[in-house]
């Protein structure tokens, strides 16, 4: 399957369908991931979509999707 870049708005839709939230990995330099809403891991801190989007832009990252799976990678 081919990964295609999607907008943050589309990522929000997928995240809501899958009960996911944007997160940053604790004690890192802002590594971004998705986590289960309400805390999937002690190492992941849920963040708001605005901060998530700003960090993506700041780090020149984008969200890619294939078959409902999302991955954060370099543009």
Question: Could you characterize the architecture of this molecule?
Answer:
This protein has 75 residues and is an alpha+beta fold. It has one domain. 27% of the residues lie in helices and 39% in strands. The chain is built from 2 helices and 6 strands; from the N terminus they run βαβββαββ. It has a 3-stranded antiparallel beta sheet. Strands 3-2-4 form a 3-stranded antiparallel beta sheet. Strand 2 and strand 3 form a beta hairpin. It is globular. The two termini are 18 Å apart.
Brief summary:
27% of the residues lie in helices and 39% in strands. It has 75 residues and is of the alpha+beta class.
Give a topology summary:
Layout: E1 4-6, H1 8-17, E2 20-25, E3 32-36, E4 44-46, H2 49-58, E5 61-66, E6 69-74
Antiparallel strand pairs: 1-5, 2-3, 2-4, 5-6
What low-confidence regions span 5 or more consecutive residues with pLDDT below 50? Answer: none
Shape: globular
The radius of gyration is: 12 Å
**Largest sheet descriptor:** 3 strands, antiparallel
Terminal Cα separation, in Å? 18 Å
How many distinct domains?
A: 1
Strand order of the largest sheet: 1-5-6
Q: What structural class is derived from the secondary structure elements?
A: alpha+beta
Which key terms come to mind for this protein?
6 strands; single chain; 27% helix; 75 residues; three-stranded antiparallel β-sheet; 39% strand; alpha+beta
């Amino acid at each position: 399957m081919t990964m295609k870049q999607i907008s943050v708005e589309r990522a929000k839709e997928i995240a809501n369908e899958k009960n996911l939230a944007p997160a940053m990995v604790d004690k890192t330099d802002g590594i971004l991931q998705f986590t289960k809403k309400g805390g999937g891991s002690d190492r992941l801190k849920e963040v708001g979509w605005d901060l998530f989007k700003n960090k993506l832009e700041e780090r020149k990252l984008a969200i890619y999707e294939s078959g409902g799976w999302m991955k954060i990678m370099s543009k």
